[in-house]
Amino acid sequence: MAETATFSLGKSKKRSRWIEEATRSGFFLCALASVLTTFGIVFVLIREAIPFFQVVPFWDFLFGTRWNALIEPRSFGVIPLFMGTMIIVIGSGLIAIPIGLASAIYLSEFASDRTRKIVKPVLEILAGIPTVVYGYFALTGITPLLKLMNDDISVFNALSASIVVAVMILPMVASLCDDALKAVPRALREGGFALGSTKTEVSLKIVVPAALSGIVASFVLAFSRAIGETMAVTLAAGATPKLTMNPLESIQTMTAYIVQVATGDIEHGSVSYYSLYAVGGMLFLITLGANLLSHRILKKYREQYE
Question: Is the pTM of this model over 0.90?
């Protein structure tokens, strides 16, 4: 009897050990696939961008002020595309950041549990709407409203694109800020109340500064999300690579140009075709830099509470 129990126990331990090893191997393969995918993307971007820079000098690409990749005479100065992207990023950030932070403060500090359970899922539903829907909403809903206030505004314009991108990144800002605020220890709040502070004073003067690293990181990640937005911007902002800071005009972002080239209207192997990878590489570096900045902010300014 004892031998049978010992045998069963040994067999069970052996099975558990095999399951543990298989699980560990599965997790390792998933991590390896992610790393290999990243290296694969970088390799393709570099390989396909080299023929472009063999024809177009790097400094002309980086500092040129005219972009015309489809019609002769062609020019490949990326600054108009970069400025168009920055208009969308800055415009959407000016809208989404204050509203998202205010929503997070309300949900974290003021809302009841019942209200929070209703409002937060509804807010996060915005993140699940397809981006192409946002683009058509900008064309058929936002732009007509803007034209009621200013008839000179273009059908395709940066302002309506900024508004819809702000709506898209709003759930990210609100959710990440809410998580950062919730992570602040309750002892800090109680200490503020013990000193006679009001709920608003505790929220704005104690909780928000304590969660500043997470809040700033959420802003940077939201900017990164706005930089990479494609379909909504392509439909709403148009395809006019223009060096302008006027949000009422039609512009073209880096992602919108990539979509334009990917439609297949450009001959494969041409300089214009390879410019797709040059722009994509620049977009990759900007997004990578934004993500590294957010992690650096978290690491440098993270508060440690005992």
Answer: no
